């Protein structure tokens, strides 16, 4: 095979069929002729006679054979690389390093990615020790610019993907830092090289922690970055401010001196830059300052006291006016996805309000008063944006007074001629409703607000979307107990709101998420509806059901992918709303359950290829099961094939939802689910053995075992030996000290699911103590194993379940068959924690006291 020609055809040939055939040839070579394929790609990458595009593709193809975004594939590729013959690996590495010197930046960039991919495998296992020396040598002043750029790019890639806690990589920190500083210092005349070096520095900051702890090295790093903020090249300036933000986030504790000497003045000047990207990144620096100080305050109880320098408070008199001024620099024609300096300033102002509290009120209020009636729409919009941005942080009492003064002038701007102003007003109202609901007088303010919102629902989709959000916030805040009360302050507006929202939801498209927002607002009205609004909810259900049925016919009219996406988004919105209606109406849905299930099964039967709606259908079916209880049995035979098909695909997200649905159905049917359990349990146990299944599916399955056991009682005995073996293996997992946060979360979820399973098994076998006997020892072994895990046991729900389990077993065996367990000191400690912790709810304390009484009875025997 002429690999060069095949690569050229794959990327450059205008004939689509030839491109496809070439891609197939490459895939076959990678699959069936791996070693020769790597050799041919290496030869092509190193050949200056090949076209640039061909060499570039050869480098990328090599990289893709060594590294992948999929973690499992990446691990397999790494193992395959390690097993390669040393001679071939050396050839690939030397060719890649040599290609870094290519005068064609595209070839050199592909080589940089390849070198980084190999380094990601070899550096952590202390191989390729000469690499960093090569890269450092390549960045020296006497080297050609193209070589310096490519080598710095390589370092950036290495640091971007490597684990900063791996000692093999961290040991290269000195070389990494030397190379970066050589390229970033002001004596380097090529701005592209300095830019590449600064970007590499950002990626390397976690690796050079020990260097940064040393004052001399830290001073030099800070000098290099600060000098870069003053470079003539604005792209370099912006990256340097980004580097300062990253340094602030990682090394706040060291920043006091640098803030006093340089950073304050540099960043204020940067915020005032005429270049928008530079200004944005300088603003981002202050956002990072606020985030760090908020974090110090938030986690003080967990991490112990760490010094907070209150940089934002110290700088507020200079920074806040600058941010407020930047709010007025909106671009009328900017795309919604474009991040502008005015948007950055608004986000930073919100963080300043959270960080400095009441200190932002006076200067911001002065800005609002001066500009809310300004002739230029930019200043009116900035005034409203400023007001809305400071509503989270200052005292609610102080804000409530301000809102009472400013609300009516702000509401008047809902009729402004500028779309930007109206959009921001609707957003500001949503912020008020969400954060300072006490600032709204239900008797005098709410009627005016509702009229403005009703008008806004018929306005531009941007305005409509924010009006929907405001309605949701008002409903949640003023009607949070709605489902348990006769009426709420929102009840009088249901008659107007529901038709207006349905009209807004009738748009043909979903511009600015306006249609989705309308359905979400309707769902919120349903969830928090009081008894006096249930008739409106029932009327709404008929309209939603009809709209969903109509979508079945619309499926036949789909022309392209845009039509498919638009229809699926509509179906998902309707299913979500219908699910909430079913849950709110409860048993009253029984009369419509046949129609509902017929529709849901039709949607499953006729769903489009690669459809996204299956999960939402399952969730809706779960709500029907919850509403009708054991009457759901009549639908099981028709539904079971769809449920099994989803369960048998453990690699899909739908499988997670299907497992949750099994739990819902088990709780609804109770013992009536027994005829279906053998098939379902077989699938669930098989899924636990599927290596390609995501590990996060395991906690779902373990928890489902408990729901099934609770439902079928003694009949679960047939599954008990294997389930106990699975639980004992799973629940013995422990996260090591240096484990990643993801793995710690995974272990927590496994332990919690194991506890749920044991609770369900004990509940299901409550009346069958002879069968339950084999469970008692594993339960106490598990509880003893986890009771020393402070993080796990500090969860109130976990502790309540554990203590309830201890009490349940005692009550099931009143003759003391297992009384020795109740003599253990840790059992008494766990029970004491549940009944005496002042932060726990009365429910948990009651469970603790009951368990204590059961323990006493056992000890008295």
From TrEMBL:
The record's listing under InterPro entries reads: ARM-like, ARM-type_fold, IMB1_TNPO1-like_TPR, Importin-beta_N, Importin_beta
Q: Name one GO molecular function term.
A: small GTPase binding
Signal peptide (UniProt feature, chain positions): none
Q: Among the record's GO biological process terms, what is one? A: protein import into nucleus
Q: Where in the cell is it found?
A: Cytoplasm
What do the Gene Ontology cellular component annotations say? cytoplasm; nuclear periphery
Q: Which domain of life is it from?
A: Eukaryota
Q: Which residues form the Importin N-terminal domain?
A: 22-102
Q: Which SMART domains does the record associate with it? A: IBN_N (SM00913)
Keywords (alphabetical) are: Cytoplasm, Protein transport, Repeat, Transport
Q: Which family does it belong to?
A: Belongs to the importin beta family. Importin beta-1 subfamily.
Protein name (record): Importin-95
Q: Give the source species.
A: Nadsonia fulvescens var. elongata DSM 6958
């Amino acid at each position: 095979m002429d690999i060069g020609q095949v690569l050229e055809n794959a990327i450059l040939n205008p004939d689509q069929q030839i491109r496809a055939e070439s891609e197939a040839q490459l895939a076959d070579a990678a699959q069936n002729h791996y070693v020769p394929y790597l050799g041919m790609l290496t030869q092509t990458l190193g050949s200056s006679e090949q076209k640039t595009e061909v060499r570039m593709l050869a480098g990328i193809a090599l990289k893709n054979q060594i590294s992948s975004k999929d973690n499992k594939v990446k691990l397999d590729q790494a193992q395959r690389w390690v097993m390669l013959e040393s001679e071939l690996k050396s050839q690939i590495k030397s060719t890649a390093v040599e290609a870094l010197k290519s005068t064609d930046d595209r070839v050199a960039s592909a080589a940089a990615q390849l070198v980084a991919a190999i380094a990601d495998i070899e550096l952590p296992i202390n191989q390729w020790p000469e690499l960093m020396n090569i890269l450092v040598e390549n960045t020296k002043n006497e080297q050609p610019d193209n070589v310096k750029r490519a080598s710095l790019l390589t370092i950036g890639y290495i640091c971007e993907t490597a684990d900063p806690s791996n000692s093999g990589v961290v040991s290269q920190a000195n070389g990494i830092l030397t190379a970066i500083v050589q390229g970033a210092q002001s004596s380097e005349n090529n701005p592209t090289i300095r830019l590449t070096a600064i970007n590499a520095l950002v990626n390397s900051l976690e690796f050079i922690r020990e260097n940064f702890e040393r004052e001399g090295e830290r001073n030099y790093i800070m000098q290099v970055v600060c000098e870069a903020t003053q470079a003539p090249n604005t792209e370099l300036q912006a990256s340097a401010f980004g580097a300062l933000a990253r340094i602030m986030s990682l090394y706040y504790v060291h920043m006091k001196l640098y803030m006093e000497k340089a950073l304050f003045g540099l960043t204020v000047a940067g915020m005032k830059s005429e270049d928008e990207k530079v200004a944005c990144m300088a603003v981002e620096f202050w956002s990072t300052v606020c985030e760090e100080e908020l974090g110090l305050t938030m986690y003080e109880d967990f991490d112990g006291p760490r010094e907070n320098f209150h940089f934002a408070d110290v700088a507020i008199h200079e920074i806040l006016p600058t941010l407020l001024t930047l709010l007025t620099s909106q671009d009328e024609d900017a795309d919604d996805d474009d991040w502008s300096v005015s948007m950055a300033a608004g986000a930073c102002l919100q963080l300043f309000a959270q960080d400095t509290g009441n200190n932002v009120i006076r200067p911001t209020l002065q800005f609002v008063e001066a500009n809310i009636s300004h002739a230029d729409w930019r200043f009116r919009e900035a005034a409203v944006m400023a007001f809305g941005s400071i509503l989270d942080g200052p005292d609610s009492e102080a804000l409530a007074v301000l809102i009472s003064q400013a609300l009516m002038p702000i509401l008047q701007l809902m009729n402004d001629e500028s779309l930007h102003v109206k959009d921001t007003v609707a957003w500001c109202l949503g912020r008020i409703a969400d954060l300072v609901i006490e600032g709204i007088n239900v008797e005098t303010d709410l009627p005016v607000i509702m009229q403005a919102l009703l008008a806004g629902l018929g306005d531009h989709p941007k305005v409509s979307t924010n009006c929907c959000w405001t309605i949701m916030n008002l409903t949640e805040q003023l009607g949070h107990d709605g489902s348990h009360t006769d009426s709420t302050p929102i009840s009088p507006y249901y008659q107007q709101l529901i038709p207006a929202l349905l009209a807004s939801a009738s748009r043909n498209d979903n511009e600015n998420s306006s249609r989705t927002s309308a359905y979400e607002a309707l769902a919120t009205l349903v969830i928090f509806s009081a008894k006096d609004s249930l008739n409106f909810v029932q009327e709404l259900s008929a309209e939603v059901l009809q709209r969903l049925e109509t979508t079945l016919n619309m499926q036949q009219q789909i022309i392209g992918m845009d039509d498919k996406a638009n229809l699926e988004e509509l179906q998902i919105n309707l299913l979500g709303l219908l699910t909430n209606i079913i849950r709110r109406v409860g048993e009253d849905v029984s009369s419509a359950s046949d129609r509902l299930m017929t529709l849901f099964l039709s949607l499953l039967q006729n769903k489009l290829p690669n459809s996204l709606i299956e999960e939402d259908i399952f969730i809706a079916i779960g709500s029907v099961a919850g509403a009708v209880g054991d009457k759901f049995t009549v639908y099981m035979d028709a539904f079971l094939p769809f449920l099994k098909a989803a369960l048998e695909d453990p690699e899909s997200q739908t499988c997670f939802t299907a497992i949750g649905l099994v739990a819902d159905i088990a709780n609804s049917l109770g013992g009536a689910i027994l005829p279906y359990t053998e098939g379902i349990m077989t699938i669930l146990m098989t899924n636990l053995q599927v290596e390609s299944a995501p590990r996060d599916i395991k906690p779902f399955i373990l928890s489902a075992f408990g729901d099934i056991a609770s439902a079928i009682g003694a009949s679960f005995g047939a599954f008990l030996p294997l389930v106990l073996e699975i639980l004992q293996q799973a629940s013995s997992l422990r996260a090591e000290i240096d484990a990643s946060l993801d793995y710690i979360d995974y272990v927590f979820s496994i332990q919690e699911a194991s506890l749920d399973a044991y609770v369900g098994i004990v509940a299901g076998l409550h009346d069958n103590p002879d069968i339950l006997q084999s469970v008692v020892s594993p339960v106490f072994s598990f509880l003893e194993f986890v009771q020393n895990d402070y993080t796990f046991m500090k969860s109130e729900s976990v502790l309540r379940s554990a203590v309830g389990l201890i009490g349940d077993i005692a009550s099931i065996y009143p003759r003391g068959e297992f009384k020795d367990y109740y003599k253990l000191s840790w059992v008494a400690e766990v029970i004491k924690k549940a009944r005496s912790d002042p932060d726990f709810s009365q429910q948990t304390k009651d469970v603790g006291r009951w368990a204590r009484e059961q323990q006493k009875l056992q000890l008295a025997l």
